[in-house]
């Protein structure tokens, strides 16, 4: 089973290639807002290094969010384009799970969502204890489930990848044309529009 998997939901852009759940090669890029310019090139480099093409893949797995709006749109667009043009299965997985898939035990996966909020979930060996959501951190901190978990605040130093766990929890996309990212919150423009509509 040849799998290409990637996530660009955070400051960490991770592109990996695995065979039968064994990580063969990967590429990491740390940045804040410009992953879009580099994702396709990094995928191309990784495939060339391993002397394979997109058509050789059995599946593509993408981190579907939550996280950066731009990163999620890019991941979904690239995943859909590759899957459609090459006839490869497309699967999705939570970006929170993707970037903490290598940790063992009960963990609280979090990404900064600004203004005191976090994108968060709690997993135990990859199984969902508390589902992905957009939460006020101060409220989450008082949750007994959270208090019993190891906190992993995803950034350029805190992430661990397990291709096997990512594959185990990935969900097949039946209709790639209907696939949209899991944003979990409205954009700032949408929020302002709603506020104007209610006044």
Set down the secondary structure blueprint.
Layout: E1 2-7, E2 12-19, E3 22-30, H1 39-49, E4 59-63, H2 69-86, E5 89-93, H3 95-100, E6 106-114, E7 117-124, E8 127-136, H4 137-140, H5 144-147, E9 150-153, H6 163-169, E10 171-172, H7 188-197
Parallel strand pairs: 1-4, 4-5, 6-9
Antiparallel strand pairs: 1-2, 2-3, 5-10, 6-7, 7-8
Can you put this structure into words, describing what you see?
- Helix content is 30%, strand content 33%.
- The chain is of the alpha/beta class and 199 residues long.
- The chain starts with a strand and ends with a helix.
- It has helices at 39-49, 69-86, 95-100, 137-140, 144-147, 163-169, 188-197; strands at 2-7, 12-19, 22-30, 59-63, 89-93, 106-114, 117-124, 127-136, 150-153, 171-172.
- Strand 7 (117-124) and strand 8 form a beta hairpin.
- It is built from 7 helices and 10 strands.
- A 6-stranded mixed sheet has the order 3-2-1-4-5-10, with helices on both faces. Strands 8-7-6-9 form a 4-stranded mixed sheet.
- The protein has one domain (2-185): ATPase, nucleotide binding domain (Nucleotidyltransferase, domain 5, 2-Layer Sandwich).
- Mean pLDDT is 92; it is low at 187-194.
């Amino acid at each position: 089973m040849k799998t290409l998997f990637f996530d660009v939901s955070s400051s960490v852009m991770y592109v990996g290639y695995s065979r039968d759940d064994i990580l063969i090669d990967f590429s990491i890029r740390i940045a804040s807002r410009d992953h879009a310019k580099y994702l396709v090139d990094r995928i191309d480099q990784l495939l060339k290094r391993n002397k394979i093409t997109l058509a050789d893949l059995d599946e593509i797995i993408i981190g579907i969010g939550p996280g950066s709006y731009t990163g999620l749109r890019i991941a979904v667009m690239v995943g859909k384009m590759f899957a459609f043009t090459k006839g490869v299965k497309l699967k999705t997985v939570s970006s929170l799970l993707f970037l903490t898939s290598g940790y063992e035990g009960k963990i609280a996966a979090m990404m900064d969502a600004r203004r005191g909020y976090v994108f968060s979930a709690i997993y135990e060996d990859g199984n969902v204890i508390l589902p992905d959501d957009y939460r006020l951190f101060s409220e989450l901190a008082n949750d007994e489930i959270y208090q019993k978990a190891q906190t992993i605040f995803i950034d350029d130093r805190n992430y661990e990848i397990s291709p096997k766990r990512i594959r185990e929890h990935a969900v097949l996309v039946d209709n790639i044309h209907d696939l949209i990212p899991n944003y979990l919150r409205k954009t700032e423009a949408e929020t302002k529009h709603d506020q104007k509509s209610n006044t």
